[in-house]
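Please check this record.
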Amino acid sequence: MSSERVPISKVPVNEDIESLVLEVLRSGHLAQGPMVARLEAAFAELCAVPHAIAVSNGTVALEAAAAALGLGPGDEIITTPFTFAATANAMLHTGATVRLADIEPDTFTLDPEAVESLVGPRSRAIVPVHLYGHCADMTALAALAERDGLALIEDAAQAHGATWKGAPAGGFGVGCFSLYATKNVTSGEGGVVTTRDDDVAARLRLLRNQGMSRRYQYDLPGHNWRLTDVQAAIALPQMDRLAERTAARRRNAAVLSAGLADLPGLITPTTHAAAEHVFHQYTVRVTPDAPLGRDALAAALDAAGVDTGAYYPKLVGDYDCYASHPNLVVDPTPRAARAAREVLSLPVHPELTHEQLERVVTAVRDAFTKAGGTS
């Protein structure tokens, strides 16, 4: 077997990407322009919405969505504690109060019943995170949002092409995608906001461009949240290959699940019957029934040349800067706390070879065997 490490992610830069970037460089138009417009059209089609607005990164996508919806001081926003800090950061920057609801144990996504228990007179928005490429229960969350007049902001940073009951992520409320370097579609840095609401879309376009409706016509105080044509040119060819690469992720996930199915205390990823998982990450749980803990397994895999990641080892409220924040309320979330102790992501990206997949499976099984588990 190869001695090269098995990476947790790998970003291929193919000839079509190089060619399109070179076309932009030779055009002399490097800032936001026709390539960005093409990328926006591709995202609007992917999410089955009339509007997609490209912005400078995924955190900005969340901030822009909240700003376009008018969220601010005095409002409450309900989201998950089991997420990358950007979700909480973006909502806190509005000046609103952030409440943290527990997650569903199988998909790690926001639990609608936990959300409902936190809805009060100041509640203005729900922010579900489609974690690891699996959609949250958008049937229940959308119904709850509609019943109580709440905005729905989807953190779809890891869910390009994921669906719930056949409907795409980013099409239920205001969708927020990341194009960061490790995402299923990347431009290095970048983001996209998707919406069906014409007024929200118009406000987003103003906000990202210094509040200008046309040159030197300022309609509101805005920002420079623009994406460049160079970045869009990196992402565009990946949109054309997204379905093919997602299928490869699913095949790789199936190989891993089959190879790891009988290990005691190791729970492989669950896909809800209503969902189509895009496996941004392949995340297992290492429970107390396993012969070794999550961190010990990660160390064993590292020694075997297999990269892993614990996404995420702590909840948002576990960090002092959030626990002491006056606008963040830390409610009990025992299922999320358990997930933070147990989750470990294994390589699943489309560039993996069959040999590398076998190495991952063998390394996990060997670690369990050495720790006293089954072979």
About this structure: The longest strand covers residues 51-55. The chain has two domains: 15-237, 242-370. The two ends are 20 Å apart (CA to CA).
